[in-house]
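Module 6 notes. Inverse folding takes a fixed backbone as the condition and produces residue identities as the prediction. Think of it as a translation problem where the source language is geometry and the target language is the twenty amino acids. Below is one complete input and output pair. Work through it position by position during the lab.
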């Protein structure tokens, strides 16, 4: 594959972090972009010094996604370089974190957190779902699939590009990765609980591995309480809460397909969960006006802000949803509320929740902040990896 085209920076020093934005590059000449979109390139600073290798995309405002820094020889054999990074990521999950002892569903590759910017790989039982947020890794998907099959033989490998990145990265209109690689729903296990997942379908990769530890934490608080789980998806919070001894559990979602899987998995676990196809806002208004309010409310909506353009509208939705959630919680109860919008940071999210409490005219106390499970590592120079945030509140 080498030698590579060169992309020059418009700045003296290489910026920190895995992303280099378009405004920091000098990548257009009289004949157009310096390289083919999706290709590996050498990055050269304004003084002519070699800085590293990156995936290039003239369509995206994230012009360069860094693959390596420093040594020109790092990408002499690109497959070996990428295999080394994926193997190191897998080793962290298996040997260091020991995740195989508690689950067969976890994130193997967390994009920038594992130095593989734009690539996510989730293991869901015997299926590996690759989700591509960068055109560069999408172009390398056959290589990625081959590496994964070597490291985890016997697993099906599915390739999906992120719908939210289609316009920004220039992905094709249709997803050719869906042709011929569908798999059937299957059960995965997590801390002894069985969940029915559909790899490569529904939201994200088909399951929310990032909430694993939070699901267990919230279940521990559910004993003896009436639980209302909004935006429940496939029952990730509902089923463990019922198994842990909740007095009652209601699971609500607008998406019928994962809701049906939640119902089926609840029966598989002998868990008493009432599933309901309804809008979370409607249910909360109904519950808040009733005589019996739940002692534990869980709010885990899908990503409301896809980017900074959607942030202000998303803030209104988060504020409204949580105001209703707080109002619906019984005095002395608990609210576990989450946001997976990377454009909204933890201080901003907490501020919205406290505003929601004032609107609901309820007193709340912050008991704990929550984040993604340990298979979602973060680099200190890339705060965007910390996309999942949660608050556990006591509601008076």
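Target side of the pair, the amino acids:
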């Amino acid at each position: 594959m080498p030698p590579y085209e060169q992309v020059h920076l418009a700045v003296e020093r290489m910026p920190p972090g895995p992303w280099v934005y378009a405004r920091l590059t000098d990548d257009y000449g009289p004949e157009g972009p310096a390289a083919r979109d999706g290709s590996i390139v050498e990055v050269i600073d304004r003084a002519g010094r070699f800085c590293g290798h990156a995936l290039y995309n003239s369509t995206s405002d994230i012009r360069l996604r860094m693959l390596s820094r420093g040594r020109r020889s790092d990408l002499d054999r690109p497959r070996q370089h990428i295999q080394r990074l994926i193997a190191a990521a897998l080793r962290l999950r298996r040997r260091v974190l020991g995740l195989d002892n508690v689950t067969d569903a976890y994130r193997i590759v967390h994009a920038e957190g594992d130095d593989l910017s734009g690539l996510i790989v989730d293991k869901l039982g015997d299926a590996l779902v690759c989700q591509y947020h960068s055109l560069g890794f999408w172009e390398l998907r056959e290589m990625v699939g081959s590496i994964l099959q070597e490291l985890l033989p016997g697993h099906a490998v599915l390739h999906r590009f992120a719908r939210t990145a289609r316009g920004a990265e220039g992905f094709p209109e249709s997803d050719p990765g869906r042709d011929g690689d569908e798999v059937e729903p299957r059960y995965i296990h997590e801390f002894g609980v069985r969940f029915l997942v559909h790899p490569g379908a529904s939201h994200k990769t088909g399951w929310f591995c990032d909430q694993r530890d939070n699901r267990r934490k919230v279940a521990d608080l559910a004993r003896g309480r009436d639980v209302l789980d909004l935006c429940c998806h496939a029952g990730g919070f509902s089923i463990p809460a019922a198994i842990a001894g909740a007095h009652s559990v209601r699971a609500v979602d607008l998406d019928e397909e994962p809701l049906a899987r939640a119902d089926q998995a609840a029966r598989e676990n002998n868990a008493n969960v009432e599933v309901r196809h309804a809008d979370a806002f409607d249910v909360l208004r109904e519950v808040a006006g009733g005589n019996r309010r739940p002692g534990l409310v869980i709010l885990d909506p899908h990503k409301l802000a896809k980017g900074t353009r959607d942030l202000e509208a998303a803030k209104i939705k988060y504020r409204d949803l949580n105001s209703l959630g707080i109002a619906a919680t019984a005095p002395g109860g608990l609210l576990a509320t989450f946001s997976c919008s990377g454009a909204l940071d933890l201080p901003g999210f907490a501020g919205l929740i406290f505003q929601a409490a004032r609107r609901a005219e309820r007193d709340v106390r912050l008991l704990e902040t929550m984040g993604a499970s340990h298979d979602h590592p973060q680099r200190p120079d890339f705060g965007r990896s910390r996309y999942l945030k949660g608050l556990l509140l006591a509601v008076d």
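Reference fact for the lab report: The chain is about 30% helix and 25% strand.
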